[in-house]
Structures are given as C-alpha cells and as structure tokens.
C-alpha cells in the first residue's frame, strides 16, 4: 500500500500556525506556477538563492502579499463556526473524535462538538434529519443513502475515508478449533449494519470458502457497542466488527481474534467522514475548513509515534469510553490475540483520507451481488459523484500532504485482483451470490 | 400499671426494623465475602503471559513495577464495595459535564425526570379529559371502547420506530413513548370512576340544579378522584417502566441510557449503580404521588 | 287547588322477562296505579306502605328523578317533570358529599339556591341552619367522622337551607339507630313548626308517621299498588313521644295502620 509522491515542495515547517501554513501554501503555489512544473529548475533556483531570498525576489515581480491576504480572507469566511459531528464509539472514527480534544477543529477556526450515537440507524437518521452537520459513516453508507437504498434518497458526499483496515473476525472462545469458513457453517454472526464493509468483507470471506452467507450462516445486525456483551452472553458465535470491539472481546475473556480484516483486503476502507450535499453547497467555506481539519487529523493519526497519545485522548467516557490499554493495543498493533499469544501488526489499523473511486466501485459491485441494490447502476458515475477523491487531493496538497495522480487503482482481496474498469463483469463473476 | 404494655408495644414496633437491618447487613457481608480474591502471584508466569494479562487488563503494574489484580476489572458480579465506590465516584461528579456525551449523574437524572414528567403530565391531562367524557356518556363509551381495547395492549416501545419516523426528533419521540405508556390505565380508571359515581350524588347535583360544568367540577371529579388517582398510579408505574428502554433505544442521555452504556461495557458495578438510581428515582416519585393521593381520597 | 297535587299518577316498567311462549310481546309491569294525593301548603303528609310497594318511586316522581307513566304532579300551579330546588330531598342514605365537611355540604346547597350571594352571606346562612339542627361544633367534620344521626342532621340542614317549596323525605331515619331516631324526629317536628314547610314523607315506621304528620296516606302492596285511604292525625300539637303514646287516638290510629299493613294488599275500608 504505497502512494508515489508526484510533486515535491518544501515540507511544511513544524509547529506552524494556520496563518503560517496558509502563507507557505500560497508561496509554494506561486513558485510552482513560475517554474511551470519544472521541478529540477525550481530546486536549483531555491538552492542557489536560499528560500527566504527567493521569496523576496518573487515578491518584486508578483503581488505575493495580496495573494496571501486573499487566501487568508477565505479562511475567515466560515459561515457556521458551531458544528456537531456524530460518531459511533469505534476506533475507525479516530480522526473525527481526536480532532476535538487534540485541537484540530479549533486550528481551522471551527468549534466542533462530537456527539455519540449508539447505533448506525441513529447515525443515518440524525444525518438525514439534519440533527448533525457532518457525520461518521460506514463507507458504503454515503453511497446507499444517495441511491435511496434502505432510506429516503438524500445526496451525500464522502470527502474522506476515516481509516483503512481496523477490523477483525472475532469468535467465541468455544470455537478455538475453527480453521476456515467450512467450520463456520450454522454460525450466528453479527455485523454493525447491512451497508457496511464489515458485512461485505464477511460475506466475501465466507463465499470464497464456499459458504453462502444467507443460507449457511445467519448474519444479524447489532450495534457495535452491544457486540461484546452479546458475544459474552453467547447470543452470537462471532462477528466481523470494528475495533475496539475485537480487542475488547479478548479483554473481557469473551472471544479471540480469528482473523484481521487486513488479511482479507490489506488497505480496505472502513469508515468515512460524510456530509450531505446540501451542507457542502450551503456552507462551502465551513465545509472546506472541516474537510481540512479531518485530513489534517487523519494524517496525524497515520504516524506510528502519535498513536499512544491518541489512545489516551479518545479513551475517556465522553468519547470511546474504553480502557486505555484496549485502545493502545488496537492503535499500536501490539496486542494479545486471546489465544495466549502477543502479536505485532503495526498496520492493524491505518489512516489515509484518500477516497479511491475504485473502492466505491468495489462496494457497489458487492451491493449488487447481494441484492442491496436493485436495477443497473453506472458504477463509475456514482463513485465519482459521492467519493470526492479529487477534492481530497486538493486539500491534502494545500496542507502539504502527499497527493495521488490517479483516482482509481486495482485492489487485491483474498488473492483475487479487482479491476474497477471491469466492474459489471466482476459483480456477476461469483459462484455464490443473491442475484 | 401502664409501663409494661407500653414497653411491649415499643419493642413490637422496632422488631421489624431490626430484622430488616440484620438481613441487609448479612446479605451484604455474604456478597462481599463471595467476591474476595487472594492477592496476585506473579511467580510461575512467563513474561509473555504477564504481558497478555496486562494487555487484558486483568493485572496492573504500579510505579514500583509490581503486579496486582486490577481493581476496576472483576470477573462475574462485583462485590458491594465496588458498587459503593462507583456510587461515591459518580456522585462526586454529579453535576459535571465532560463533553456532550458524558454528563454527571445529577444531569442524567434531571433529563430522565424531565422527559418522564413531560410525557406523563400531558398524558394525564388528556387521559382524564377523555376518561370523563367516556364515563359520562354511554354512547361515547361504546363507540370508543373497541379502539381503546385495541390500542391498550400495544407496548409503547412498539410504537417507537413509527414515532421516530414521523416525529423525527428523538427527544420528542421519547416523550411520546412515555405519553402513550401513561395514557390507557388513566383513561380506563377515570371512565370507570366517573360512570360509577353513586347515584345520590348525581341526584343531589340535579336537585341543586348545578350547571353541567359545575356538576363536573364539584361533584363528578371529586367523586371520581380516588379512581382517577388509582389510574394515575398505574400509569405512573407504566411510564417509568417505559422511559428507561426508550432512552436506551433512542440514545438520549439519561438514567436508562446509563444502564445501557454500562451493560455494553460490561461494567457490572455500573449496571448495579444505574439500577439503584432508577429504583431511587422511582421510589421518590412514588412517595410524592402518595402525598397527592392522600389529599384527594375520602371515606364514605 | 292544592299546593302539591299528585294526580292519577301511574308507573309502569317494561318487564324483565318476556311472557313465556309468546315471542315478541313485551309485558309491562305496573308498580302502582292511579295514585291521587293532594297536599295543602304547610301540611305534613306521610305515605306508609310495605317495602316494594313503590312509595319511593312515587317520591322520585315528585322529586323529578323519574317520569310518571301517566298522570302528573303539579306544584303551585305548575307541572313538575325535572328535579329542582323547589323540591328538596332528604335521602335515606344521607347523600352527603364525603369530600366536603358538613358546613361545606350545606354551603354548596345555599350557593346553588342563591348564586348571586357573596361567600360571606352564604356562610352565615349555612351556619344558621347548622346551628338550628344542633350541629354547632361539628361543622368542620367530614361525614365519615359523623354518626348516622349527625349526618342526617346535616342532610336536613341542607334541605331546609335552600328553603324549598316542598320538602321530600325518603325514609329519612331508616338507617339511624332507634334511640337517636327518636331525638331527631322531635327536632324535625320542632324545625318544621317554626318554618312551616310543606312536607311529603314516605316511611314504613308507624310511630314516626303518627308523631310527625298532619295526614297519613296508606298504600297497598305492589304490583298495581293503590293509595287506598288517607286520614288526618288528630292528636294536638305540639306532640312529644312521651305524651303521645298515652292517648287513645294514638293507639287507635296505630292499630288501624298495623292491621292494614299486616293484611297486605286488601283494600281496607274503615276509618276516615
């Protein structure tokens, strides 16, 4: 999972204020424009005259200050400073949650309160009824809500992916001898929501093992916070759930971690940050600031050295309400697996905001496969409408983070390659389906 | 001599209290002893095993590097002392607000009681009016009775998804659930009380040529008051029973919500605490109700 | 023209059971037929009969609680069909509002009779009648805390307090113990002699009727009860129980009435 750095600018100076960062971005943009993309020439110029002199020289021929002032003006044009963002208390929402106590929202001029919901249906209802301004969602949800599957059709946008990986299949301790899908026939599973990566990954995994997810096993919807209690009570045999509920099951001696979702699809998207199209068009400056805050927070969370601090910040009752040790194990990747072993998997959960269009296309093919979608859908068109890959790129670039050249790529799931350009054929290529 | 019988009666009145206290103390002692654990022994465990135990929160390491059982994590039901500690902890932060999702127990009680009061009081007004109308008119009673019989047994929680869909506001939905739970017992009892007023009272009212309104206020309502209060009592219990799950399902902050959150986190001490709080709130409100009832009861 | 005229009043009820073997025909049940009684202003008239002869029903018709099947009741020139303050009733079961004190019960009635009066005036008037019935000191008590005798005193005070044209007494002392009964009866006589109300009472207590009334009417047993005779009680007033029982007239009247009652539904001709 690597992304090439297509362009290089000087890195953002550390510990900078919003104004300084904005100034830096504008300077970079002007320099780029002057050298017309000739990176070699640009670098040689900078090395020759030194960065600050370069800026002084440029100022003589270009109204840099005006440009900076204009850019700063934009930042001040936030229409709505007091915002609410809803979340489910899972580690997937780490960037959304940590942005409050760690000041990322404040840094971009916003006063955001994060509001905890107890289930995905509530998240959906709050979002549709405009009880909140932006929300944590499962990555299929912006697609399903925009298409009107399982809810009234309201156009939603997904500017950023919250996290990659970060889930696992956890089984009850009495199933220690299970080796693969064939041993899971007759099991009762639960997933957080019908339109979730958890559901689609679980179904994919079971189907690849020759088990039909609707005929040979039961899959129920249970809100994530209730999953551990249900497992402990023996109501379910296992689940594919977001963390921290896999680690929590180990903590509570209720289950063991059978398989990380990373081992199904390394780099799969999980949760998303979403806003309604109405919000983005009514409050464009606010939306922009929010988008920046999220991208900022996501990149901060991506760095391994920050993970421990983040675990402490989001553990309290007001956020995830979990013991710190559980969150640390999830975020640092050094964890007890419930079978007596200690494992080290640093990418157990990863954060990268870029919403690949190809991810959306994969989700749509699976929705079609399991009949969550009726009728024919132009996969590429819908993906582009909902997943704002280009915008995310722009923001990331403006904040000095690496950007991507392409909006789509191929993905490998359980050893099988998915090519987004062959989406329709892919959706029909499976022996086990509901079509 | 009066003194010996006086002593005996005093003794008799204190006996039940003493027995209750003894029972309580005995139960608590047995409960506490059943949950006592010996100190943690680190010998014979490998570093990896210790690490696993620490990761699972079973043991904690103090600053001196020594291991002990984690007091915040119990297997099975915690002892009463854990519940006491939890109670002290919660009440010391009773009115704090650590962010939108974590309000102190004082606030939570206030939310629950407010929600409950809004639903119960509005339902009571509507129910008494409806009950009086039905009780006074035989035709109306027969016309409305089938609907009432149909709607009465439906659990108010079953209405919740429909309410949420139409009302869309979770706070208002919670109030509506309490409203529906409090409606039917009061309607039934009020109608019964009104239609079963002793004929002579009504005859006196007609002799005195009281207007319809005066008859209602001066004779019908006071005469039916004990039945109305009885109905309100039942509704009250019903509403209290409904507000807790309504909060759980709607994610509205409150005491019911607290119970659910603690269950999700398998904090048994927290669940016991939440149960105690719900019980205490119920008992307090019920006592207030008794006062009210005593004001309007009369003996024939 | 009598003050209160009960003119050929009959009462029929639809029968509970239909006639056997005859489907679709509704039998009616006749309680009493062609009852005719004239009461002059200021007279105290008592109706005596066995239980079930319909005397309470007749009183209810006069009070306006029930309708006559045929015939009518005329009070002071106007026909009466519904209850009103002009015909106040004293009930066998006292019918006091148990949530109101004795004083409040009487005040309720006074207020109803004089809607425009100020509350002070209402209170004073109520107190007057309470005192007249010997209830001074017990006004604040609720009926549950009063003995049967006291309760009926309140009932009487209430009835007098509205100053009705006619007082209707429905076996008023039947639920009071024998000893208290005597005391209240004498008080009633005293009250009545002062106020001179027109009174119509129904009872099955012979001594009470002789003590209190100017005239007694006798009703046969039901069904199809009839009012067969009425005669004056010519024992001079003021009457007390003690003085009365030694007179010949008392003994004569009493025996006559008892014979009538014991013979039941026979039409008894004799005195008058």
UniProtKB/TrEMBL annotation, chain B:
Q: Which UniProt keywords apply?
A: Cell membrane, Membrane, Transmembrane, Transmembrane helix, Transport
Please give the superkingdom of this protein's source: Bacteria
- Enumerate the PROSITE patterns for this protein: ABC_TM1
Entry's Gene Ontology BP terms: transmembrane transport
Main localisation, per the record?
membrane
Q: Does the keyword Transmembrane apply?
A: yes
Under InterPro entries, the record lists: MetI-like, MetI-like_sf
**GO cellular component terms given for this protein:** plasma membrane
Q: Which residues cross the membrane?
A: 16-34, 116-136, 172-195, 216-246, 266-285
Which compartments is it annotated to reside in?
Answer: Cell membrane
Membrane topology qualifier: Multi-pass membrane protein
Domain (ABC transmembrane type-1) spans 109-285
What the record says about family reads:
Belongs to the binding-protein-dependent transport system permease family.
Q: What name has this protein been given in UniProt?
A: ABC transporter permease subunit
What is the scientific name of the source organism? Tectimicrobiota bacterium
Taxonomic path: Bacteria, Pseudomonadati, Nitrospinota/Tectimicrobiota group, Candidatus Tectimicrobiota
């Amino acid at each position: 999972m690597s992304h090439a750095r297509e362009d290089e600018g000087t890195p953002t100076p550390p510990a900078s204020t919003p104004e300084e960062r904005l100034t830096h971005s504008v300077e970079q943009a002007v320099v780029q424009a002057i050298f017309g993309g000739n990176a070699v020439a640009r670098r040689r110029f900078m090395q020759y005259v030194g960065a600050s002199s370069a800026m002084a020289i440029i100022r003589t021929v270009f109204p840099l200050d005006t440009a900076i002032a204009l850019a700063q003006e934009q930042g001040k044009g936030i229409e709505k400073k007091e915002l609410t963002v809803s979340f489910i208390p899972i580690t997937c929402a780490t960037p959304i949650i940590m942005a409050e106590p760690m000041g990322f929202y404040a840094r971009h001029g916003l006063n955001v309160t994060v509001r905890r919901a107890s289930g995905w249906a509530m998240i959906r209802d709050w979002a549709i009824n405009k009880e909140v301004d932006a929300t944590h969602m499962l990555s299929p949800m912006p697609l399903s809500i925009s298409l009107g599957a399982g809810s009234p059709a309201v156009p939603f946008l997904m500017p950023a992916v919250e996290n990659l990986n970060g889930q696992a299949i956890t089984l009850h301790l009495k199933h220690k001898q299970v080796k693969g899908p064939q041993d899971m026939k007759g099991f009762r599973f639960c997933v957080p929501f019908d339109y979730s990566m958890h559901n689609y990954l679980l179904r994919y995994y079971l189907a690849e093992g020759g088990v039909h997810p609707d005929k040979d096993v039961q899959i129920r919807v249970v809100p994530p916070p209730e999953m551990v209690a249900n497992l402990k009570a023996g109501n379910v045999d296992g689940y594919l759930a977001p963390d921290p509920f896999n680690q929590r099951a180990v903590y509570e001696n209720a289950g063991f971690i059978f398989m990380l979702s990373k081992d199904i699809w390394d780099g799969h998207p999980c949760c998303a940050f979403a806003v309604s199209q109405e919000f983005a068009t009514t409050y464009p400056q606010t939306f922009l600031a929010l988008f920046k805050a999220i991208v900022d927070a996501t990149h901060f969370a991506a760095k391994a050295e920050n993970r421990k601090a983040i675990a402490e910040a989001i553990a309290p009752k007001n956020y995830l309400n979990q013991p710190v040790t559980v969150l640390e194990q999830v975020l640092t990747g050094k964890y007890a697996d419930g079978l007596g072993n200690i494992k080290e998997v640093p990418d157990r959960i990863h954060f990268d905001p870029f919403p690949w269009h190809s991810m959306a296309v994969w989700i749509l093919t699976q929705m079609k496969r399991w009949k969550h979608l009726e009728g024919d859908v132009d996969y590429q068109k819908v993906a582009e409408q909902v997943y704002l890959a280009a915008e995310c790129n722009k923001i990331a670039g403006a904040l000095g983070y690496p950007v991507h050249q392409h909006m789509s790529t191929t993905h490998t799931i359980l050893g099988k390659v998915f090519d987004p350009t062959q989406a329709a054929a892919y959706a029909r290529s499976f022996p086990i389906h509901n079509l | 001599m009066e003194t010996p019988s006086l002593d005996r009666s005093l003794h008799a009145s204190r006996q039940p209290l003493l027995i209750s206290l003894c029972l309580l103390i005995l139960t608590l002692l047995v409960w506490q002893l059943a949950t006592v654990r010996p100190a943690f022994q680190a010998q014979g465990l490998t570093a990896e095993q210790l690490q696993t135990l620490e990761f699972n929160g079973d043991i904690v390491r103090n600053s001196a590097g020594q291991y002990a059982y984690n007091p915040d994590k119990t297997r099975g039901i915690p002892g009463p002392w854990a519940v006491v500690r939890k109670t002290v902890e919660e009440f010391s932060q009773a009115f704090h607000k650590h962010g939108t999702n974590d309000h102190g127990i004082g606030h939570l009680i206030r939310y629950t009681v407010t929600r409950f009061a809004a639903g119960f009081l509005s339902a009571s007004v509507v129910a008494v009016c409806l009950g009086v109308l039905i009780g006074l008119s035989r035709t109306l009673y027969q016309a409305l009775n089938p609907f009432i019989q149909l709607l009465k047994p439906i659990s108010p929680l079953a209405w919740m998804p429909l309410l949420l869909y139409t009302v869309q506001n979770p706070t208002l939905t919670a109030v509506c659930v309490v409203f529906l739970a409090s409606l039917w017992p009061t309607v039934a009892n009020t109608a019964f009380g009104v239609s079963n007023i002793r004929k002579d009272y009504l005859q006196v009212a007609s002799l005195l040529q009281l207007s319809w309104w005066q008859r209602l206020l001066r004779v019908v309502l006071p005469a039916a008051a004990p039945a109305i209060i009885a109905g309100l009592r039942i509704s009250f219990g019903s509403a209290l029973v409904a507000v807790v799950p309504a909060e759980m399902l709607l994610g509205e902050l409150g005491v019911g919500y607290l119970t659910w959150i603690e269950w999700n986190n398998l904090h048994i001490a927290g669940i016991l605490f939440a149960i105690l709080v719900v019980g205490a709130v119920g008992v307090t409100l019920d006592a207030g109700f008794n006062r009210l009832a005593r004001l309007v009861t009369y003996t024939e | 023209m009598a003050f209160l005229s009960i003119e050929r009043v009959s009462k029929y009820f639809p029968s509970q059971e239909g006639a056997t073997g005859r489907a679709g025909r509704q039998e009616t049940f006749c309680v009493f037929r062609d009852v005719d009684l004239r009461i002059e202003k200021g007279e105290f008239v008592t109706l005596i009969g066995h239980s079930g002869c319909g005397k309470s029903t007749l009183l209810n018709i006069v009070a306006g609680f029930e309708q006559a099947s045929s015939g009518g009741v005329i009070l002071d020139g106007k026909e009466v069909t519904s209850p009103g303050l002009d015909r106040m009733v004293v009930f066998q079961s006292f019918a006091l509002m148990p949530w109101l004190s004795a004083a409040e019960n009487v005040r309720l009635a006074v207020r109803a009779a004089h809607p425009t009066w100020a509350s002070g005036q209402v209170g004073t008037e109520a107190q007057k009648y309470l005192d007249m019935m010997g209830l001074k000191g017990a006004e604040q008590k609720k009926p549950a805390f009063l003995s049967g005798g006291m309760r009926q005193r309140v009932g009487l005070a209430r009835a007098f307090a509205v100053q009705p044209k006619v007082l209707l007494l429905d076996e008023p002392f039947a639920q009071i113990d024998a000893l208290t009964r005597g005391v209240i009866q004498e008080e009633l006589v005293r009250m009545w002699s002062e106020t001179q109300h027109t009174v119509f009472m129904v009872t099955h207590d012979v001594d009470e009727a002789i003590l209190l009334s100017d005239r007694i009417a006798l009703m046969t047993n039901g069904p199809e009860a009839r009012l067969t005779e009425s005669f004056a009680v010519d024992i001079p007033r003021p009457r007390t129980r003690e003085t009365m029982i030694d007179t010949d007239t008392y003994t004569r009247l009493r025996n006559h009435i008892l014979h009538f009652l014991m013979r039941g539904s026979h039409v008894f001709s004799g005195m008058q």
